[in-house]
Design a protein that fits this description.
Elements: E1 3-16, H1 34-37, E2 51-63, E3 69-74, H2 76-90, H3 98-108, H4 115-136, H5 140-143, E4 151-157, H6 165-177, E5 182-186, H7 194-212, E6 217-221, H8 228-238, E7 245-247, H9 255-265, E8 270-272, H10 278-287, E9 293-294, H11 303-316, H12 328-335, E10 346-349, H13 350-356, E11 370-372, E12 390-393
Parallel strand pairs: 4-5, 4-10, 5-6, 6-7, 7-8, 8-9
Antiparallel strand pairs: 1-2, 1-12, 2-3, 4-11
Helix pairs in contact: 2-4, 3-4, 4-11, 6-7, 8-9, 10-11
The structure holds magnesium ion (MG).
Length: 395
């Protein structure tokens, strides 16, 4: 079997959602500049009352035997990298030889060890695994050596919800009533936001703990926007609310040293790594003892092939891997192929999944707080043609 084309295209559709889809945003590293701190949540373009424009690019690997593999959603930038830079290497290759294709592209992209290029390679790798599963007539978790169990618990990430305490309480209780045993929320304030910011960050944790009681895990994400002393001080104050972890206090380039220092004094476990790429990036965090939980994203860090390697390395340090949740379908296959102590839980970003899985016929959603495996071959997602308002070919 040979690859004949890496076909990239963009789908447009209209999502209906009453009211504001994004109510609030997380704190960002650029918020140290007041003009950016003042910015509201980034908008998914509204195209009418309660109607939002969804644009998703995808890659489809085409072969001379008619078997195909689908990857996405990705950005149009990533689609262009696949079309222009990867096609000359991948076309003519056997699509089932995923290690060979990954390594050839990696060796050809000496400046592409992260960012858009590595994200594009991640998506192509996922599309190749989808193809390999469809060719074998088996779900990807089975090709990866799973399943290790029939289902995995999911945690609900509440990015984009209002941080008004009354609404936080209401939504957190709603999440628990849906069967989730864990929920993650996102701070809005960083280390330059003074006592008022500290007060509001602590209020978020207190509100959550009071809302969900003692038997539900809460996690808190600082999205790279804190400093070492601030994170240490906050971790000590947050300990009272017993969070399962404090996430990504430092920017990726500073987290090896920074999170190692934070961990020495933090009474709360530190989770990080979603902005690191490849086995080498994640191994750096392991070697420097910078994380209690590692969070590579399958669609960013190098694909299923690479995150399997990261899980293998992490298991030698006895560190859990809780992948960041860009693609729930792809991530579920990987998690269900790993022992529960290596991959204990799956991230479900409530709002992002409405967008990322918008075009899928059967989105993978937790039911009663768990994601169960299915027997669908490959990754198991199919495009719902009825959702497409406009389709644009990108190559
Ligand atoms: Mg995060």
């Amino acid at each position: 079997m040979k690859i004949t084309r890496l076909h990239v295209f963009q789908l447009q559709g209209v999502m209906e959602f009453p009211g504001a889809f994004w109510e609030e945003r997380l704190v960002r590293p650029i918020d140290v500049y007041p003009e950016h701190k003042a910015e509201g949540p980034s908008n998914t373009p509204e195209v009418g009352d309660g109607k939002y424009l969804i644009e998703s690019s995808c890659v489809e690997v085409e072969t001379d035997e008619g078997v195909t593999g689908l990857g996405g959603p990705i950005t149009a930038d990533q689609a262009q990298v696949i079309a222009r830079q990867f096609s000359p290497i991948a076309v003519g290759e056997d699509p089932r030889a995923t290690e060979r294709i990954w390594d050839k592209i990696y060796r050809s992209q000496v400046h592409g060890r992260g960012g858009v290029v590595m994200m594009a390679l991640s998506a192509l790798d996922c599309a190749l695994w989808d193809l390999k599963g469809k060719w074998a007539g088996a779900p990807v978790y089975r090709l990866l050596g799973g399943p290790t169990r029939p289902e995995v618990p999911a945690y609900a990430s509440a990015l984009g919800f209002s941080l008004e305490p009354d609404l936080v309480r209401e939504r957190a209780r709603m999440i628990v009533s849906q069967g989730f045993k864990a929920t993650k929320w996102f701070f809005r304030h960083g280390h330059l936001d003074g006592r008022e910011g500290i007060r509001k960050n602590l209020e978020l944790a207190r509100t959550l703990r009071e809302a969900v009681g003692d038997d539900v895990d809460i996690m808190l994400d600082a999205w790279m926007s804190w400093s070492v002393p601030y994170a240490i001080s906050m971790a000590k104050q947050l300990a009272e609310y017993n969070p399962r972890w404090l996430e990504e206090p430092m920017m990726a380039d500073k987290e090896r040293e920074g999170c190692a220092l934070i961990r020495q004094q933090s009474p709360v476990a530190i989770a990080t790594g979603e902005h690191q790429y490849t086995r080498w990036g994640l191994k750096g965090l392991m070697d420097s003892r910078s994380a209690d939980i590692l969070q590579p994203d399958i669609y960013w860090a190098g694909g299923i092939s690479e995150v399997v390697k990261i899980c293998n390395i992490a298991s030698t340090y006895d560190l859990p891997v809780v992948p960041h949740g860009h693609s729930v379908p792809a991530t579920a296959h990987l998690i269900l192929s790993q022992p529960a102590n290596t991959c204990p839980i799956l991230e479900y970003l409530i709002k992002w999944n409405e967008i990322h899985q918008f075009f899928w016929k059967e989105p993978v959603k937790p039911v009663n707080g768990v994601v169960r495996l299915t027997e669908k071959p490959g990754i198991g997602v199919e495009i719902d043609e009825a959702k497409i308002v406009k389709r644009r070919e990108l190559n």
